[in-house]
Write a structure and sequence with these properties.
InterPro entries: Mtc (IPR004686). The chain is mainly alpha-helical. It has 15 helices and four strands. A two-stranded antiparallel ribbon has the order 1-2. Strands 3-4 form a two-stranded antiparallel ribbon. Strand 1 and strand 2 form a beta hairpin.
């Protein structure tokens, strides 16, 4: 009965959208094709759109109700595909898909850039003291851990100790590497003060990249021990694969290394050139605002590019997996959820 109602609702929406440029709406499905990099890039641009941070409580309720009406076949006439896609975008940006509870604004994916940019600016401040280095690395990893926890897969109970373990590992590795590299640079007498300052600006990247890898491995180590679910082309569960889990963690770790690269490497290069301009030399007070804009631009470009590298539902040939997995299906390939 519910399937018939949904079909009728979909038919009504399709008729109302004959002249619309938006693709036919599919409840719970991405608007853009995920088989191409461009499609994934467009999809993640929607996910991180900061405009959803300003959605009112009333607009959220309307969006949720519109999707419920579509699901139960009670959609009012004249609703367009564009309105349905917009409603789904709002719901997915604000509510956790498993708990259906609102995600705290700074920890939403749409809040990652606006709330994370001040931290990036702090990481890249010149002439940092030991205390400021520790503070900004700690704040960065704390923000990352909160975002990871707020957007976690909550379908299965996961002990909080796993997240604490990942958090502590990330903080310790980030702080240790950043402080260690800063000490080495300070003791390198062959560098001129200008060269030393430039090198110090690149210190946050290896610290953050290594901490990100540490965070992924520690928080998802259980997947390597137990495996992750792999599905056939029809969405049927084939089994649990440790090899697929290794692929998933490798792809996620690579993404976490690529992500901070433009954010923490490009701004120092750009700022080292801008600081030589007569405008900034005559107005040193503009240095911080300009650096903030440069970091914001780099962050806004890097985030969707990095998370678009691999499909969230990745494909792997069954011949590469455990023999029992290959024997359990006739499909040449299976898919698994890589995670973000």
């Amino acid at each position: 009965m519910a399937d018939t109602a949904t079909t009728a609702s979909a038919a009504a929406a399709s008729a109302a959208n004959a002249s619309s440029d938006a693709p036919p709406f599919q409840l719970g499905k991405p608007r853009f094709q995920q088989t191409s990099f461009y499609g994934r890039f467009r999809h993640f641009l929607d996910i991180i759109d900061p405009r959803t941070l300003f959605v009112t409580e009333r607009r959220l309720r309307e969006a949720v109700q519109l999707l419920e009406d579509y699901k139960h076949g009670t959609l009012r006439p004249g609703v367009t595909n564009e309105q349905l896609w917009s409603a789904q975008k709002i719901k997915q940006a604000i509510l956790h898909p498993d708990t259906n509870e609102k995600i705290f604004m700074p920890f939403r994916m749409s809040g990652y850039i606006p709330f994370g940019t001040p931290i990036v600016v702090g990481l890249l401040l010149p002439n940092q003291t030991l205390a400021s280095t520790v503070f900004w690395q700690w704040l960065n990893q704390s923000h990352n851990a909160c975002v990871n926890y707020a957007n976690r897969n909550a379908t299965k109970p996961s002990p909080v100790s796993k997240f604490i373990q990942g958090y502590l590992g990330a903080v310790i590795s980030a702080v240790s590497i950043a402080v260690g590299l800063n000490v080495l640079v300070q003791k390198a007498n062959k560098f001129t003060p200008a060269t030393r300052l430039l090198i110090q600006r690149f210190v946050p990247f290896p610290a953050v990249a290594s901490a990100n890898i540490c965070n992924v491995v520690l928080m998802r180590y259980g997947e390597l021990e137990e495996g992750i679910d792999v599905l056939d082309s029809d969405g049927n569960l084939v089994g649990s694969s440790k090899i697929a889990a290794r692929h998933a963690l490798l792809e996620t770790a690579l993404t976490r290394v690529v992500l901070p690269m433009p954010i923490l490497v490009l701004p120092p290069i750009v700022m080292s050139m801008l600081e030589k301009t007569s405008l900034l030399q005559a107005r040193p007070r503009l240095l911080l605002p300009v650096q903030s804009l440069v970091c914001l631009a780099a962050f806004g470009l890097a985030l969707p590019l990095a998370i678009s590298l691999f499909p969230q539902m990745s494909e792997i040939e069954t011949s590469q997996l455990e023999p029992e997995i290959a024997q359990a299906t006739s499909s040449r390939t299976v898919v698994y959820n890589k995670g973000l």
